[in-house]
Amino acid sequence: MKKPKTPAASYSGRILLKRLLAVFFIISSGICHASLLSTSSGSADSTGTAGQAAEGHDEQHTDNSQESRNGGDINHRLKYRNVDFAERERIIDTSLQNLPVGSELTESDYRYLPAYFRKKWEALLHYEQGSSIILNRWFFLSPEGGYNPEKELEATLEFFRRSPDDSCYFPARYYLIYHKLPETGRCADLREYLYNISIDDVSVVLASEDKSSVVSSMGHLSIAFSGHNREGSTVKHGITFLGYVQEMNDFASEISGYYILEPFDRLRKRYNEEEHRSLREYHLNLTETEKFWLYLHIIELKDQNLTYSFTSNNCANGTRSLMTVMNQDFYNNSEHSYVTPFDYVKFIKKSPKYSGETDYLTAVDSFYNERNLLKSPDEMPPISTVTGGYTFSSLLGNGGYFSLSPFSRKITGDIRDYYFLHNFEVLNLKARVYRDSFIIDNITYIDSYSLPDILSPDFLSPGMSLSLHGKVNTEHTSLYPDVAGIMGTSILSPDTGLSLFYKLKTGLYIPHDGLNTYLINSAGSYFINRRIGRISLAYDYVWSNRSEYRGYDYAFTGGYSKELSDNLVLEAEFDYYHLKRRKDYTIDRRTVSGKAGSRAMYEISAGINWRF
User: Fold this and answer.
1) What is the pTM of this model?
2) Which of 20, 71, 126, 458 has the largest CB neighbor count within 10 A?
3) Is the predicted pLDDT of residue 493 greater than 60, yes or no?
4) Cα(333)–Cα(529) distance, rounded to whole angstroms?
5) Contact of 324 with 122, CB cutoff 8 Å
């Protein structure tokens, strides 16, 4: 589609916007819908990469026994020694031993292996749809290991034969091939890991959305597991996939990532106390075999510098890969090209392995929970939206409109039982089409703010907005930068479904004819009812150095939203703008009256919102 002309668009404004956007993403405190590592509080040194958490949790273990000194096999010491692994009966012991040595492993050789072996092998390589989501070549022994499982198996067999003492770097691979643990005499890390960490219980842990950080607004996933250490004490750890925020420039950035293993108390403290995010733990009823594979594979991720990507290999993908190592049934075929934490916990909750939940609530969520207003995160609707419908403008007449956003949760949307008022939009595009006009109304890079209850611990919650848009009474596309801070509060009445709110928005609008600083006072109400839907009313009054903002000085807005199904929402909106007269104001040729003085315009729209 040919790009519409943008009259008087400011080049310097676009440069400013790009720089502001870059700064915004760099200083954001999370990704993945997750918290990122930082050198101050989340580095690998401070939390420990996989296999290192025991150093901070238990004193260094020393064993003067003859077996330990000689590097004897400690498999008999493990709690799994009596487990009758079903896969032992399914794998032909000689299958791998009889493969060609010193020559290439062919595709037919690989296909000759039992199906169970191939599935488990590719799960250990984190394969999804034919290739590994781990892009870092150091995770593989073959240069082709990321997309060729036969070559990686060939390289692994050769590695074990050539360097038996190094087999402890890949205990899960070794066990899959030889049905026993590698010798641990020279494997200090593996020996310490086996002595100090065990897995009796496994759960998926969801950190709630971080409303102060845009890229953490979809939550964060970890895996927690607990067991008895060598002293008989119960210890609990968490493992999560994180990336380094210092390397991030935008959503498409590929940055360094690590699987971090740490005591669960430390993980909980970081989210509950430092980031003010609640945790919900989804417990699983797993077999000893499933837990054993996770147990062996975690140490294989130690010190691996992996590639982290917001869209292709985030915390949700990383968690799903670990879960799939235990059982292929934990792989969910997402409808998106990416996986969100909310999507994955919905999938987990439907699994026959799911056995219950435990909450670790912040003071804020405890406040709403006591009032029966806390919504389960796995009940949240999809966040990708496409909207289209009919619109009428008193300036331009009849037309149609559409908008789309990969990440959107509008405050006016009918989200049933959502416990307080929160708006979240990223990369939203809205446009209108008339008989002889195509208008891009706005491009919203970020519009995130909350209106928490005035009695809650965070009754004033800061937000921000970064967008491109023009005046409301224009006939063409005119996009100019608008940067603003937002803060507001509300009074919630759960019994009636009525909420009263006040919002203050202050910012800088940069049209072609100069800077415009402004302050918008908004007041109104929301009414929420399961049968009726959500109704919103708002009044906006503008203070600015030009006595108007985007062509108006005050506005009335009314909205209606009703869920038709889990994915379809009916929405309607009415906007009335009071257009302030200016001395240099040019009367539009479509205006009915050319009289001097104040004028008004209004818009009506109705359509269907598809959430997916």
Assistant:
1) 0.73
2) 126
3) yes
4) 34
5) no
